Each structure stands twice: as C-alpha cells, then as structure tokens.
Amino acid sequence: MHLTQFELANISGVSPSSVCRIERNERFPSAHILRKLAKPLGFSENELFILAGFLSEPTKDETVVKNTRYKFSGLDPIVAQTLASESVEVQRSVIIVLNMLKRIAKNLLSQQA
C-alpha cells in the first residue's frame, strides 16, 4: 500500500507501536484492531479476518449461496462488538463452536430430507 507504519497508524487509529509489533509478528491483532486496519490496507473486514485466521475461507457452495440469496455484508455489529472485546483465544473458540453447530444443523437437515 506504500504506507509507512506511522501513516497506517494515523489513518487507522491504531497506535504506531501496535502496528509495528503486528508487522514484526510480536503481537497478534485482535478482531477490533483488524477491523480498523482493513480499509486502509485495501481489504474488506472479512478478507482480513480470513487472512488472520479468524474466519475460514468460504467453500464454493457457500460463496454461491451468499452471493445469490443472502447478499452477505459482513459481521453483525453486535456480534463483532462482542467478539472484539474478547481475547483472541475466546474469539477462536467461539468460531470453532459456531462451526460445530453449523455442521450439526446441516446433518439434522440432511436427515430430515
């Protein structure tokens, strides 16, 4: 993006020391920090969340469904705010639990059909 760490910090509202530690892999950014960095870096929030490992890459089928039926626009603001206030470990645990619940629901639906 041709930005210095200081320029990115100013544009995003993230402290220069945090930007520096993230870039040197001394600190893993929280969802709250990633949300602030996404736009200045030219990413959507979801793209940056996927790159950081907070979200899994959608499968081809999920992408088609989202694009055609749901017009996916990102995280629910309440969910995003709640997750952003938690540690990275809690955020990842929540995502794991949600993925398990999704698989269970999918299995139940396929059994009903």
Q: Cα distance, first to last residue?
A: 49 Å
Strand content: under 5%
Shape: elongated
User: Quick one: biggest sheet?
Assistant: none
In terms of topology, how is this protein built?
Blueprint: H1 5-12, H2 16-23, H3 31-41, H4 45-52, H5 60-70, H6 77-84, H7 88-112
Labels describing this entry:
70% helix; 113 residues
Give an overview in words.
The chain has helices at residues 5-12, 16-23, 31-41, 45-52, 60-70, 77-84, 88-112. The chain has 113 residues and is mainly alpha-helical. Helix 3 (31-41) crosses helix 4. The longest helix is centred in the C-terminal third of the chain and has 25 residues, at 88-112. It starts with a helix and ends with a helix. Residues 61-73 have low confidence and may be disordered.
Task: Offer a concise description of the structure.
This protein is mainly α. The chain is built from 7 helices and no strands.
